[in-house]
Amino acid sequence: MSASKVPYDANEFTGKRILVTGGTRGIGEAIVNRLVRGGGTVLATARTIPVGGNPEQFIQADVSTRAGADHVIKTTFDRLGGLDILINSVGGSSALTDDIWQQEFELNLFSAVRLDRGFLPAMLKQRSGVIVHVSSIQRTLPLFEATLGYAAAKAALTNYSKGLSKEVSPHGIRVNSVAPGFTETKAAEALIERLAAEAGTDTVAARQNLMNSLGGIPLGRPSRPDEVAELIAFLVSDRASSITGSEYVIDGGNIPTI
């Protein structure tokens, strides 16, 4: 079922004030689009505001820095007056040096910690709110090359998310995490095209080789960004009002264990 044919309640998030970090590309962009379609008032963070984007919908900041996180918190309160749903979707990985290790944790862990800390007091005061941390299946299937720092940071994010849920759930705040596997974002499509060119093959073969290198995906294809967004839309909705302290894997069966 394509994204345009997925049924949804156009008023499900009406009145909800929502912030999505990393909301201009890939999974983050899909989350923003899904929640806007559901009637939510959504702000998205980005290091660069997309060309043609509405400046009022975006907060330009690098959330991997304390100053960036503080700017996002202040701007969100200024524009929305509070927050009902926080989705920490920003993430990324690079080659491993000491500085990069630190940057991986700043981006993939500490950005979420700082934003949670900034918004939780208001959520606790209103005794309602939802936080979702976007982790990765690499927290249990780490790759030892360029993404090891990323995998370690995402493992820490999952652990932190569980602990935070125990602290704040008694006060009406739900906290969950989502661990996507290989998701065919535009960046992934570009990688597949590059691999195909390097191997002298087509994108179908390159995609399959990439899935094989990850241990195989029983579903036979990567996930789509809109599928991850749909799972997150459910978790932040009232339909999931009793779900907290959980992590949901969406990887087409990639992880071979329970």
Strand order of the largest sheet: 3-2-1-4-5-6-7
Number of strands: 7
Largest sheet: 7 strands, parallel
Low-confidence stretches: none
> Mean pLDDT, nearest integer?
92
Strand content: 5-15%
Shape estimate: globular
Q: Whole-number radius of gyration?
A: 18 Å
Distance between the termini: 27 Å
Q: Helicity, in percent?
A: 40-55%
Explain what the structure shows:
The structure is a single chain. This protein has 258 residues and is of the alpha/beta class. The protein has helices at 26-37, 66-80, 98-126, 148-168, 186-199, 203-213, 225-236; strands spanning 17-20, 41-46, 58-60, 85-88, 129-134, 173-180, 247-250. Strands 3-2-1-4-5-6-7 form a 7-stranded parallel beta sheet, sandwiched between helices. The protein is globular. The chain starts with 16 loop residues before the first strand and ends in an 8-residue tail after the last strand. The model has no long low-confidence stretch (mean pLDDT 92).
Question: Can you tag this structure with a few keywords?
Answer:
258 residues; alpha/beta; seven-stranded parallel β-sheet; 7 helices; 7 strands
Write the SSE topology.
Elements: E1 17-20, H1 26-37, E2 41-46, E3 58-60, H2 66-80, E4 85-88, H3 98-126, E5 129-134, H4 148-168, E6 173-180, H5 186-199, H6 203-213, H7 225-236, E7 247-250
Parallel strand pairs: 1-2, 1-4, 2-3, 4-5, 5-6, 6-7
